[in-house]
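Following up on my earlier message about acetoacetyl-coenzyme A. Here are the inputs again, as you asked, copied directly from the submission form:
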Amino acid sequence: MKQAPKHPVRLERQGNVALVVIDNPPVNALGVSVRLGIAAALNAALADDKTDAIIIAANGRTFPVGADIREFDMAPQEPSLGQLCSLVESARKPVIAAIQGTALGGGLELAMAAHYRVSAKTARMGLPELLLGILPGAGGTQRLPRLIGPELALDMMLTGNQVSAEIAAEIGLVDLVAEDDLRVEAVTYASTVKKPRPTSEHRAHLLDGAGYMAAVAARRARVKAELGANALAPLKIVNCVESALLLPIETGLQVERSAFEECVTSRESKGLRHAFFAERAAAKFPEAAEAKPAQVERVAIIGGGLMGSGIAIAALQSGLAVTLVELDEHGVNSALERIGAHYERSIAKGRLSEAQGAAALTHLQLTNKLDLIGEADLVIEAVAENFELKANLLADIAVFAKSEAVIATNTSYLDLAALAEATGRPEDTIGLHFFAPAQANKLVEVGVHDDASAQAVMTALGFARALGKTAVRAHVHNGFGEGYIGNSILEAYRHAADIMLEDGATPSQIDGAMREFGFRLGPYQIADMSGLDIAYARRQLKPRSPDARYVEIADKMVEQGWLGQKSGRGYYIYTGGHHMGVPNGDVLKMIAEHRAHKGIVPRKFSDRDIRDRILLAIVNAGARLLGEGVAARPSDIDAVMVHGFGYPRSRGGPMMDADATTPSIIASRLSVLAPEDPSLWGAAPVLTMLANERQKFADLNTV
Ligand code: CAA
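Thanks, got it. Here's what our run produced:
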């Protein structure tokens, strides 16, 4: 963990104006040393006769982005942020917040406790606490409705959306938008204000009590309809905003405090905070000590199918220039249609203006000439999953790509080191594994083989981050890491489900149990969506482990031509306008015959059995990847599962869930299941070690 700077707050002076300057890189989080520093500087300025007004400002790229989230699981230390905000508001001299960058959460609450707000033109403001399963706990729920009214306040708090400085000025959140130099203009403004103006005394938005209550009631009904009657933080936010009207501010603040405390200790908030830090930890690659990412301005993508087009769209969205290469004219036209259709949909949904769509497309070069990749800083092959095809293409890419370019393969499970070798430039070659739809799915696995240079790895990481993706490193070495992290776990997940299918469960029961747990789709819905032939082809290539139980059901389906959505039939039938599909009775019949043929007497699985077995399989596969050194830390596995596979974010991820159950209980449950299929249920050595040492996966998380 980073050490807090010794003096994170300084008191400066410009004439009769004192500046309380926060300097706590990287994001000026309001940890205890900052709160103490602000309180001390404020008190000193208040005691100083030569000071008429006080500005709270921040150095660096941003005004505070909130409370220090890392402190939420520690014993509270005074002054709390709420106490500090009350101190600011009760100051006898005018206090002005000078806002730049992103004033978020507790940062914006501090600004709202000040008497006046001046903001840089480019600043943005928001209360994103809900995304962490909590609510603004330093007066935000009481002060924001007073400043901008209940409806807008609820909008901001229930979406976490940020507003620009311009909008903030329009709605009454800031008093002045600086034209040029924020600090200079804030000082000028401070010398014009005569007296404190506490936000708690703003009454304009409280005068129409009936209108206020109607807005609150409507929002409460909407939250319940959309999120259910147990949506903890959203409903608490609505209650607190109601209290802002009904109660004196001191009591409203107490209501807010106890709501905050209830939310911050909830499992949901712990899960969401874990997910937040897991994403950031995953981006810490060891190669950062040796190399910096090279700038990627143009990316070339070979293969304009679903995956290649998706990567192209993601790159265009991030402002990069793209060369997309297809085999022939027909391929070029289909890729153009696919990308064009995406932009049309985005414009129709109001996500993009026509001008923005047209501007993005001017950065796209579509061609069937491979030699045009020569200007690209990064070249990604995204053709079909066939070793010969990819190896030959990569060899050609190496001929045309400039010598400094990084070459990436989007393979899901082929031998990465051998593909890198095929380029003749293995040090420049890396795995970049996107997940469909690549323009939307947040996960990218960076496959690192032993000959890859630190420079290539860091450039691939920088590119993934520039696309706004959560990048996770998968170390592919000595025969380990085939399938990286995500697909290796998915395989175990599917295998656990297939065993239950063969032993008595139905596809829709398994899918339903996993949806109930929080996945958007169950494993058989995903299989139907991906196409059963893809996994079938992979199974044909993979040697079978002698102690693995083999379930032939999916193979039999492919042999019947039931490939999923693409053939209209899979585990579900998609004809007749059923978008989600209805259970395929022929599959159920085939499964029954299959069981009879193997002499299996079907048994019942409860939804809980299904969920437990699948989670055990996921956790055990994750532990195996840790032992093999493919995944660096348990939280990387959580990030992969949350972003790539829809594991419910509010649970943090499977390894966090495993810690709640404890590794020793998991190991003992696995030992009961082991005889059924030792290859799946045999406890991974890391799990056994944690169980023996009475440790948790969290103990292995390093940053
Ligand atoms: N507390 C502690 N650390 C924080 C933090 C916070 N509120 N916000 C960011 N950080 C850390 C990150 O973990 C990261 O640390 P490492 O370098 O060690 O990984 C570092 O600051 C930089 O963050 P990012 O990598 O995310 O930088 P970015 O430029 O991509 O994004 C950001 C910046 C938009 C501010 C993003 O970090 C963010 O969304 N932060 C969280 C904001 C938030 O949720 N604020 C509300 C906090 S809760 C609150 O304030 C409750 C209250 O009412 C009392």
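One observation from looking it over: The first helix runs from residue 32 to 47. Hope that helps, and feel free to reply on this thread.
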